[in-house]
User: Fold ATP-binding protein from Tistrella arctica.
Amino acid sequence: MLKRSPSLVILCALAAGLLLGGLSVVAAVDQPWLGLRLVATEQSETALEPRLAVTGVAAEGPAAAAGVTAGMHLQAIADGQGRQLTLRAEDLLEEPDFLPTYEAIVDLLARQDLAAGILAHDWVQLSLIDPEGEPQTVWLAPAPMRPIGQLPALFWVQIVTGVGAMLIGGWVLALRQDDRGAMMFALSAPTLAVSAFCSAIYGTRELALDGGLFRVLAALNHWGALGFGVAMIALFLVYPRRLVPDIVPGILAVAMTALWVLDTARLLPAPAMGIHLPVMIEMIVILALIGVQWRLNRRDPRARAGLRWLGLSVALGAGVFVSAMAVPLVFGGEQLMSQGLAFGFFLLIYIGIALGVRRYRLFELDEWAFRVMFYTLGAMLLLVLDGALILVIGLDQGPSLGLSLIAVGFGYLPLRDLLWRRMVLRRRMPDHELFRRVIEVAFTATPVERAARWRDLIRSLFDPLTLAPSQTAVAVAVARDDGVLLLLPAAADAPALAIGYPWRGRGLFGPAHLQLARELTQLMAHADEGRAAYERGASEERHRIARDLHDDVGARLLTGLHKPDLPQTRQVIRSAMADIRTIAAGLARGAMPLGRVIADLRHETGGRLEAAGLTLDWPLDDGADDEVMLDYPVYRNLFGALREIISNVIRHAQATSVRVEIGMSDGWLRLVVCDDGIGLDIAASEAGASEAGAAGSGGLGLGNLARRVTELGGVLRFPETSRGTQVALDLPLCHPARRTLGVSDTTRNRT
Assistant:
């Protein structure tokens, strides 16, 4: 099969529908017009013939100018050449095949032909009876054409039905040009359109229509009605599951054509056998095939979902028409509603198909089908508006095109976007609400609660009929079973989930929903990582505080218990209190400015050395930058390291003075402490510090000192000096964990 562009096929189908509808309008208005609205009345007591009641008179019509008013009864019409027709109730019959015999139909068409010939004259005589029962005769000149505004609402119902059927049938065919089911459905559209257009012309005539035209239109109406039934039977023979070979729909079409020829030639016993009985049988077969397909597809939920919607649409749309029109006439009764109104129910079928494509992906059409339809309609609307402005209003091409673009841009496009969101995306939760819900899930206290909230979020988004752990693990969200099932990876302490039948079984998962699920699970994974990092940081902080309290404060207080004299005990307690102040400051303030840290170190070190009888040489202008913030682990270990060095000097160096220098360079903090004491064995000190850093202990406090420096990724050195001991520390300004996250060493946490 030669495939065409979907947009081209849709445009051709819509253009054909509009062309046929336009020809129907032309045929309906190209008739002589009296300006009357007539209805049939019962046999009166004073008249031998039934009369036609005048229920309305057009204000600008010929009848109003001749003095005809509502409430009168029209008895007969005549022309100036002696032809006269006494009117009957069946002259207003909406459909000829409502009559019981072919002879009655032939008589009706002959009367219609005579009435049309009379109305075609320049002057027509109307025989009327006024509301008081007095006979009146008036002459009037029928208008050559019926104003388009005088066409009744039932006419437009049938025109819209035909055009809508052509559009949706062409849409389905355009997007599934190689699918038998779509082809059978598309074939039903022109048959229904022909039937509806023909019925609209003769079923809403004012009084009469040319008999020859009437006969052709009635025959085409029968062909369309029978053809629609055959197309629907063929549809359910091949969709969702093929039941018969391809030749069977062709055989049905041949049989229908033969029956139509016999009916048109009036070779059947009665009109009902040519149209009403076959239509009723077709409806019974359609319902039976729906039941068969339902039975055969009982293990295919996607096919059943689509069949339920398609079958319901056909049963409701065609079923109402057949029940109201064909069934009563087959059993000798009268139709239950106007044929024009009954045709409106056929439009329900095609609207149902459009909704079925959206909800159940009928004929395997997806969201892109709506994109094609929306853009095609936009292009058609632009052309129609442009042509209307040129032909009706008389604008030039330039202004008309500009106005059309404005109308489409500001009118149709927002409406298209609204329909797309409502009909296809179906997501009602805004982005900010979705983000808030994800964060709430991620930071819920316990894993059980997190998993429960994650499932609640999924239910809020997709409203599925089933939500259960999946036996299939997936790395990203995937759709299965043609959109019936969506598999989600494990997230938020919940296992992998299988989501079935979204929106309470009223739809399927499409690409837009799959993309949403993937973005949602990715966002949830990032939130989980953030929560895990936060918990790791909190755990590390708790362990650090516990270690500081145990190793520093606890060790000092334990040492103080064993000091023999009170001054030494007090000194230990002061050191422990200093450690507590540092820990408390870290908990309360977090990062501290470098200048403040140096000032506190200078104050504390000076007090300790003064109490021990040593002098401190610490330059005040040390280049400290208050804009540089030190993380708590950095300044905490800096305090501890300097305290350890000063303690060693006081206890072991036998020095009289200490010099401290501190400065910054390229994101590093350098601390140098020199004393004028007896000095140390540098090689032994460096080896001891190295072993202590590995073992976590060492003499002269080198274990603690090395541990603190190592934790920060710093360097501990003992430079050679001519007198005393020199200890140099190089510490990074930024904690290693912060550097891992990419935080700058020199420009972080500015205040």
In short: The chain has 23 helices and 17 strands. The chain has a mean pLDDT of 79. The longest strand covers residues 657-665.
